[in-house]
Amino acid sequence: MAAEVVVVGSCMTDLVSLTTQLPKAGETILGHKFFIGFGGKGANQCVQCARLGAKTSLICKVGKDSFGNDYVENLKKNGISTAFIGQTTDAATGTASIIVNSEGQNVIVIVPGANLLLNFEDLKRASDVICKARVVVCQLEITPAVSLEALKMARASGVKTLFNAAPALPDLDPQFYTHSDIFCCNETEGAGDSFVGALAFYLAYYPKLPMEEMIRNSNCIASVSVQASGTQSSYPYQKDLPQDLF
After folding, report:
1. 3-state DSSP assignment of residue 21
2. For position 186, what pLDDT does the model report?
């Protein structure tokens, strides 16, 4: 059965260190906790959508490395189709190295890696799943031209398009506006991705709901995510949410 929601986007492995203070240039400090999490705007949105009950597929690229292998397994555990997840030896899986101090301030280094190698050929291979979806979701953590091409392919087949213009670009191609049914400028990483994933779910499964109600419900779901730790680990499942949202 074809996926109802197809997300074209990024996978990032989060490498998180918790410290009392952020290091200054040239300084080595002692941290008190370290953990590895799953992130990246595309994967985050796809995971939230899947946890609400959507049949989803993610089109992305990871490295042929341990982080990439772990990410594919994580997506499978979330019930997401991994048929169009490429693994490459030409770059490492994308990473975000994050240091957070006790006040919640952070410094982040993002290395996109394999995310930037997702290309037009990958989209062509996935054209059938893109063109048969109810909703296609894109963002800007992969090469922008690839996101734009995915939106064009979807629109040409009458598929509803949801574009999350994040991270923001100063010179966004105006074609993004004409090929997006819904243009969402939400920038916040975790809760914003929960919101976009939820909105994709409602667009696919409750298309007759008024847009205001879709947005209100998606906000409710995103507000639940900020009450738990982590990014994807904080995303609620449908069974744990008030049933009047469905």
Report:
1. coil
2. 73
pLDDT tens digits for 149-192? 999 999 999 999 999 999 999 999 999 999 999 999 876 767 99
Q: How many whole angstroms separate alpha carbon 246 and alpha carbon 235? A: 16
- Torsion sign, CA atoms 178, 190, 37, 29: positive
Whole-prediction pTM? 0.95
Tokens, residue 99: 């240091």
The set of catalytic residues is 193
Query: How distant is the alpha carbon of residue 52 from its chain centre?
Result: 15
User: Within the chain, which residues score under 50 in pLDDT?
Assistant: none
- Degrees (nearest 5) of the Cα angle 89, 35, 106? 100
Q: What is the pLDDT of residue 1?
A: 61
Alpha-carbon 42 to chain mean position:
2
Cα–Cα nearest to 11, from 98, 117, 108: 117
Token pair, residue 70, equals 């772990």
99 phi and psi, to 5 degrees?
-115, 125
pLDDT for the residue 84: 97
- Determine the pLDDT at residue 188: 75
* Burial class for 144, CB neighbours closer than 10 Å (0-12, 13-18, 19+): middle
Sign of CA dihedral 76, 116, 186, 154: negative
User: Which residues, 6 or more positions from 135, have their beta carbon under 8 angstroms from its beta carbon?
Assistant: 4, 5, 6, 159, 160, 161, 162, 200, 203, 204
DSSP code, position 88: E
Query: What 8-state DSSP symbol labels residue 70?
Result: H
